[in-house]
# Entry
Amino acid sequence: MVMMGEMLNLGTTMGTVMLVYTFCKQFLPPHLQFYFEKYFHKIVRFVNPYVEITFDEFTGEHMKRNEAYSAIKTYLSDKSSASAKRLKANVAKDSESVVLTMDYNEEVTDEFQGVKVWWSSKRTVPSTQRIAWYPNDDEKRSYKLTVHKRHRELITQSYVSHVIKEGKEIATKNRQRKLYSNNPSQNWYGYRRSKWSNVPFEHPARFDTLAMDANLKEQIKNDLIKFSTAKDYYTRIGKAWKRGYLLYGPPGTGKSSMIAAMANLLDYDVYDLELTAVKENAELRRLLLDTSSKSIVVIEDIDCSLDLTGQREKKKTEKEGKDEEQSDPITKKVKEDEKKESKVTLSGLLNCIDGLWSSCGGERIIVFTTNYVEKLDPALIRRGRMDKHIELSYCCFDAFKVFAKNYLEIDSHSLFGEIETLLGETKMTPADVAENLMPKSDLDVVETCMKRLIEALKEAKKKKAEKEEKEECVEEVKENGVAMAA
Ligand SMILES: Nc1ncnc2c1ncn2[C@@H]1O[C@H](COP(=O)(O)OP(=O)(O)OP(=O)(O)O)[C@@H](O)[C@H]1O
Ligand SMILES: [Mg+2]
# Structure
């Protein structure tokens, strides 16, 4: 890419023509100015050997963000930072370096298969002042591509797709991954308002730091990597390129940490879908359609999110039916309004998930987490929707060794044997093991941390024994009661 001023300066040529036009026009009487304008433009169009293609930032009736615009922006920022004279600077994802993009009304040239093209960036600011809730809503930005007429075909058929493809590749390489959360639908209005708000995704969890059974960990990692590289395979077998994971287990066993590790392994964005904030099935569908590929859509604690279990839903409908028959019109209206609060149903969710797979581009993962897998409706987690069911459970010795390595930087210790036995005899979550192993002060040495964990394990074992004893007593009392009654 070379600065346009150094080559054929197209902008200057056109600028000169326009100057001549304005100059001549002022000497003409008003009744001739109209004809002059009309024929001047006709002549310019006739003699101008260039074609122009404009790429607006927002297009269509609904002012949807134009993917081509973003890709061109990335492509040009990569190319022009070395040559353009006026650049805009933004902070990069690591907050330490800056990303340079060409400034508005700046022009640069590019070459493709020996053909020269000209790019310019434009911004139109509305002339009238108005009070806006969201700044820059009326600003219009675009890129203009200028090329000689004789290369029209090559440029429209090959060059533009080359630019978009390269721009997307650069963007994927450079992007700051995001953690998205859904906005309530009353905040969706205004064409640039988004259904999702985002923050940079910077969770440090990795599979290396996940404490769990080593074989299971390897299996999950392989499954994920195989999925992310299987585009052709999915196309060949005629299946949507997606995968569903159900993570279940008690609190503090690493379900959320695993989602972060998955996103970090695959370099995906995360969409944290809060179902309770979604009012109805149609809204859910729109939210899911607004997610991008290379992403993980997460619904945490699916059992608590909504009344999604088949049985509960049935009971509720029966009860509602009876209530409605008996209530007066005002109560009915109040109830109807109440029902509008959140009306996402199990079947709605299932349809949305299936719809998401069929109507969006691929490379998506959906993850449900729950503490109570037995509460979920089988339809929700059947294979094909949730392809892999992963149980994350209490801390095993394998998991402990990961913590010992990460937290204390040791692979073995004389106390390992005792800890292995105790872990086999009691149930402690990885979150609790981690908390006990973490040094509490600078004076805490490895042995102090290990001993603290041993004490905690012994305490948990004691409590477990007491609980079992109590339960046995209750059982005995029950049995004696039954025997006496008989
Ligand atoms: N398997 C694990 N490996 C590493 N760290 C873990 C693991 N399990 C829990 N932790 C630690 O415990 C904390 C809680 O874990 P996390 O939030 O992943 O649990 P969870 O299973 O999602 O719990 P909940 O069901 O309550 O949402 C985290 O800060 C994490 O560092
Ligand atoms: Mg969690």
Observations:
- The radius of gyration is 32 Å.
- The first helix runs from residue 10 to 26.
- Residues 4-176 form one domain.
- The pocket of adenosine-5'-triphosphate (ligand 1) is lined by residues 209-212, 251-257, 371, 399, 430-431, 434 (CB under 6 Å).
